[in-house]
């Protein structure tokens, strides 16, 4: 392997090269086990820590979701697991070659890398990218390596703008001069890729989606209030969550979330705050237990004197989902959230952030958010 | 032959006493048939207002020739429409040909040729003129019998005996000739060669319907047998070496009838008839040359037997088609055993019949005793049984037949019912046999599973009969239709009036759901299934003269149902096993599919020897799905299931197209050597 320039930064997990060596060793270790069992006439299996709700532990002290010790065996000689077994090995092989070539691939790229027709049949190794993505997440946990350590990244989704200067792979990015589009948050934002250079901002405002973000950016909200403005395109991808967490942790910036008033918005907040079930193993690096929810609140319909027109009726799925969220252990004993969800259900309708536009185009940027921040009126 | 010495058939004692239907339709008193036709002139003599007197009526009452009767009522014999007429003609000729060959101990080779004599008719024409020719390699017919056989109705060898044969009444072929004569005016043309040493006869004859006698128009000797003209008819007939070859047709008979008819394929067609005949007669070879121009609204080919295009599948004997000529080859090389004539059995006789038999015996055997009568005129009656019967009837062993009174006969009849008797002898019945049934089905039906069963002979009305059933399942049969029921009586296919037939009722009565098939309420099973039922009997009870359906006797239907259940059980077992094997096979398929990928990945990951890993994993996969091996026989498409399964079941693997070469050791899901080689190429480089 040709030696490249030393890794730009280092983290608790060691230098990039060290981490690559460790990942490779881990892959070889697993593959050796499979080969030995195969040759020895024993059914080969893979140990995959299970990413299910039952294997997710709510760490109340830390305020995050963590993955338990539960493990599933993936067997070759099991009808429902045989294909997954083969796919795991295919991807393991691809990852090995990626690391050796010191290249990275997108999730979609990995899907194509592993894609071919199974010899002697008409069946493709992967039916769609979804299958491939699932296998890769399994590999992350079974190799106990992060996605970036497997040299895989996701597509960019999420935007940042504000009083901060970043360094991305050696290039300086001044987030104050990003025009109307903002800077797209990369999928890998580890310290060896992105460093924070100069930051005047005092807090972070994270909004749910791009349309709301544009409203705030056009009104130069981040300039007036000296903050960083981000959005995650709905459910924020890992890159956005990791960047928020780093800004919060390393620069001690509080994170405020402006999300829709519906079960989906509540779930986004939940994921930002304590992590998700499927990525529970990453919560330690992603969750922001101190994140705050400033709106939209169910009571805003009355408080802000909104018109009837902004109501969107709750569907049956919404109601079911809201009740589930209310039962999450991290919401169950939180009076504020119990009240919030109860009001939402009592209202019988949901509201989007954009509903505030019915008051005034800039009501949300000039009145709503500043007032809430001033009054410290939020849910935690 | 002059009209005066030709007695009307109806007045001949032999025929009138038999009670056959045609003769019972005779109307009025017997009268001299040669009297002038004065009846016409004698009518309308009475004064206006008064009707005919008994005298006048008597003058119009006269004999009806059986030929005249059937000329008017031709639908009774199966000539009701042009399409059916064509079929009936072929059917009668083929039945006769096969009967003749078997009786003479010759393996039948029958050729059927239909020529379209009006190929230029408008497409809309409802019917056309055809020449039907049926040639067999049978024993031929001696010259003096030709007129009787082809020119008279109700003349035959098969009516008066209790013996199994296709024909029964002696109506068939002469009726076909008569129909031809009525519709086209053309006489029948017969070539027959009874001896290898002599030349063949060429005879043309027309039936005189008034006298029920033949009028011969041409009678010459000829060397042209089998007729050379037919060999040169189409490219197909020229291409087939064995078609009408002089080596096979050393003796034999050829019958040509010109007739008005309609050729159309599909249900109830000549094609179907021959196809089914081939199934029930696996020992016969049948060549079939259809007319070159067919009716425009031709139905699609029968699903049951799409002939194999000229390849002649390896192993199994299958129907082939060359240039429009279909050849149904013989599946077995031995003739069925010669059926034996028998006496009636006491268990199935009726009181009236017994009385008549005693009377007849007293007349023919002057001074014969009842004791002797019982042993002579019944089967399965030994001396001691006869003594027991006499005792029960209250007569001694010396009592003469002419001395017994009606009450004695009544007691005798009762003793028949009470006494234990062996069933009638079975050698009078010649079943097709399970092996031949399977061979026949295999020839005509492209299925995957075949089962046959043969019941022990049983009796209805004192006549022994035997039921055989066979089923074919899967393969290329249509999966969503009702099962097709094909019916045979004494090896003759029955094509019409299915729902009136006892066999069809038996199929609907059988509970097919028990064997893994669907069955709507009150109907037959649904699925890729062909059900075949054969009744062999010394006298098949048909519902009509045209022999289209078997009458619904409880004893017959019960036997049919039992035979079907036997077949059904075999099918049920097979389906269950197949289901299990399929499931295991699928499991193995899944595993084996991925093993190649896995071994290659492991090579890339840790440098493991892909071939070794592949073999090791394959071994594991095989042992884990060992059940699947039950189906995956290494070679041969036709295979018998395990030894314990009898010879009455046959399984054909239709997944391999006929004629395609199968590399040895190749299994589905397992990459053959070269492919596996490619799989690992580059893995180590």
Account of the 3D structure:
- The complex is a heterodimer of chains A (380) and B (685).
- Chain A is 41% helix and 17% strand.
- With 380 residues, chain A is α/β, with parallel strands linked by helices.
- Chain A folds into two domains: 16-42 and 76-153, Orthogonal Bundle (Arc Repressor Mutant, subunit A), CATH 1.10.10.10; 159-375, 3-Layer(aba) Sandwich (Dna Topoisomerase Vi A Subunit, Chain: A, domain 2).
- Chain A has a six-stranded mixed β-sheet, sandwiched between helices. A three-stranded antiparallel β-sheet of chain A has the order 9-8-11, with no helix packed on it.
- The longest helix of chain A has 24 residues, at 16-39.
- Chain B has 685 residues and is of the alpha+beta class.
- The longest helix of chain B is centred in the last third of the chain and has 53 residues, at 554-606.
- Residues 1-46, 294-316, 631-646 and 656-685 of chain B have low confidence and may be disordered.
- Chain B contains 20 helices and 17 strands.
- In chain B, strands 5-4-3-6-2-1-7-9-8 form a nine-stranded mixed β-sheet. In chain B, strands 10, 11, 12, 13, 14, 15, 16 and 17 form an eight-stranded mixed β-sheet that branches.
């Amino acid at each position: 392997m040709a030696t490249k320039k030393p890794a730009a930064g280092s983290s608790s997990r060691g230098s990039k090269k060290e981490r690559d060596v460790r990942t490779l060793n881990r892959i070889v270790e697993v593959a050796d086990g499979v080969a030995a069992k195969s040759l020895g006439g024993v059914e080969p299996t893979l140990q995959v820590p299970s990413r299910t709700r039952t294997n997710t532990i709510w760490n109340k002290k830390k305020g995050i979701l963590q993955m338990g010790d539960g493990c599933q065996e993936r067997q070759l000689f099991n009808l429902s697991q045989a294909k997954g077994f083969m796919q795991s090995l295919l991807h393991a092989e691809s990852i090995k070659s990626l690391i050796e070539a010191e290249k990275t691939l997108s999730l979609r790229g990995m899907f194509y890398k592993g894609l071919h027709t199974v010899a002697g049949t008409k069946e493709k190794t992967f039916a769609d990218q979804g299958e491939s993505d699932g296998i890769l997440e399994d590999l992350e946990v079974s190799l106990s390596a992060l996605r970036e350590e497997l040299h895989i990244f996701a597509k960019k989704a999420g935007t940042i703008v504000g009083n901060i200067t970043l360094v991305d792979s050696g290039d300086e990015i001044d987030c104050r001069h990003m025009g109307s589009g903002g800077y797209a948050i990369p999928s890998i934002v580890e310290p060896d890729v992105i460093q924070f250079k100069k930051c005047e901002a005092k807090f972070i405002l994270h909004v749910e989606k791009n349309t709301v973000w544009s409203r705030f950016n056009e009104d130069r909200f981040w300039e007036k209030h000296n903050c960083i403005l981000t959005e995650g395109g709905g459910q924020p991808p890992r890159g956005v969550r990791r960047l928020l967490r780093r800004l919060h942790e390393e620069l001690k910036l509080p994170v405020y979330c402006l999300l829709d008033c519906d079960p989906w918005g509540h779930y986004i907040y939940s994921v930002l705050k304590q992590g998700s079930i499927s990525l529970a193993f990453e919560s330690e690096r992603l969750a922001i237990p101190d994140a705050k929810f400033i709106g939209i609140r169910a009571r805003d319909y009355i408080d802000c004197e909104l018109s009837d027109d902004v109501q969107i009726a709750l569907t049956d799925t919404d109601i079911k989902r809201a009740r589930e969220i209310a039962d999450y252990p991290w919401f169950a004993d939180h009076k504020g959230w119990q009240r919030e969800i109860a009001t939402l259900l009592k209202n019988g309708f949901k509201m989007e952030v954009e509903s505030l536009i019915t008051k005034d185009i800039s009501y949300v940027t000039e009145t709503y958010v500043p007032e809430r921040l001033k009054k410290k009126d939020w849910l935690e | 032959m002059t009209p005066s010495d030709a007695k009307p058939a109806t007045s001949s004692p032999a025929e009138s006493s038999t009670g056959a239907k045609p003769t019972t339709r005779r109307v009025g008193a017997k009268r001299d048939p040669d009297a002038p036709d004065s009846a016409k002139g004698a009518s309308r003599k009475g004064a206006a207002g008064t009707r005919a007197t008994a005298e006048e009526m008597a003058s119009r009452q006269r004999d009806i020739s059986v030929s005249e009767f059937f000329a008017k009522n031709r639908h009774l014999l199966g000539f009701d429409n042009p399409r059916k007429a064509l079929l009936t003609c072929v059917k009668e000729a083929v039945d006769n040909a096969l009967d003749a060959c078997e009786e003479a101990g010759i393996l039948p080779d029958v050729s059927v040729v239909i020529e379209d004599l009006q190929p230029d008719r408008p497409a809309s024409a409802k019917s056309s003129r055809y020449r039907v020719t049926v040639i067999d390699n049978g024993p031929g017919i001696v010259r003096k019998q030709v007129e009787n056989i082809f020119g008279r109705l109700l003349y035959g060898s098969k009516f008066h005996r209790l013996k199994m044969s296709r024909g029964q009444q002696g109506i068939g072929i002469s009726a076909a000739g008569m129909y031809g004569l009525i519709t086209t005016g053309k006489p029948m043309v017969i070539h027959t060669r009874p001896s290898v040493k002599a030349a063949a006869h060429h005879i043309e004859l027309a039936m005189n319907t008034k006298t029920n006698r033949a009028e011969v128009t041409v009678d010459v000797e000829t060397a042209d047998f089998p007729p050379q003209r037919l060999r040169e008819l189409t490219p197909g007939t020229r291409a087939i070496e064995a078609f009408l070859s002089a080596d096979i047709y050393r003796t034999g008979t050829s019958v040509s009838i010109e007739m008005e008819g309609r050729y159309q394929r599909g249900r109830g067609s000549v094609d179907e008839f021959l196809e089914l005949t081939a199934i029930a007669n696996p020992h016969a070879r049948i060549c079939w040359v259809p007319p070159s121009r067919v009716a425009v609204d031709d139905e699609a080919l029968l699903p049951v037997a799409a002939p194999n295009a000229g390849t002649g599948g390896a192993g199994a004997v299958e129907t082939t088609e060359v240039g429009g000529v279909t050849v149904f080859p013989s599946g077995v090389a031995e003739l069925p055993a010669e059926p034996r004539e028998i006496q009636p059995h006491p268990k199935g006789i009726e009181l009236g019949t017994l009385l008549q038999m005693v009377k007849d015996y007293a007349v023919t055997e002057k001074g014969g005793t009842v004791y002797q009568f019982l042993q002579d005129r019944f089967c399965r009656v030994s001396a001691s049984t006869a003594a027991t019967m006499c005792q029960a009837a209250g007569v001694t062993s010396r009592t003469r037949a002419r001395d017994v009174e009606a009450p004695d006969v009544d007691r005798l009849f009762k003793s028949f019912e009470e006494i234990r008797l062996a069933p009638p002898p079975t050698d009078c019945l010649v079943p097709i046999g399970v092996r031949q049934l399977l061979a026949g089905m295999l020839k005509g039906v492209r299925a995957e599973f075949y089962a046959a069963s043969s019941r022990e002979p049983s009796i209805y009305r004192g006549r022994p009969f035997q039921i055989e059933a066979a089923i074919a399942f899967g393969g290329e049969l249509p999966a969503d239709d009702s099962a097709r029921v094909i019916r045979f009586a004494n090896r003759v296919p029955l094509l019409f009036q299915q729902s009136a037939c006892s066999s069809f009722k038996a199929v609907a009565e059988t509970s097919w759901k028990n064997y893994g098939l669907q069955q709507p309420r009150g109907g037959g099973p649904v699925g890729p299934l062909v059900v075949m039922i054969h009744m062999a009997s010394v006298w098949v009870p048909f519902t009509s003269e045209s022999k289209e359906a078997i009458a619904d006797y409880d004893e017959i239907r019960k036997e049919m149902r039992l035979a079907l259940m036997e077949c059904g059980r075999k099918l049920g077992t097979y389906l269950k096993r197949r289901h299990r094997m399929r499931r295991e096979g699928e499991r193995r398929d899944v595993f084996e599919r991925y093993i190649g990928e896995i071994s290659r990945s492991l090579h890339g990951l840790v440098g493991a020897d892909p071939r070794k890993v592949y073999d090791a994993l394959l071994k594991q996969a095989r042992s884990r799905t060992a059940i699947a091996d039950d189906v995956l026989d290494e070679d041969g498409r036709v295979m018998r299931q395990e030894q314990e399964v009898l010879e009455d079941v046959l399984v054909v693997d239709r997944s391999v197209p006929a004629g395609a070469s199968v590399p040895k050791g190749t299994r589905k899901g397992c990459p053959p050597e070269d492919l596996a080689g490619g799989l690992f190429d580059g893995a180590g480089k």
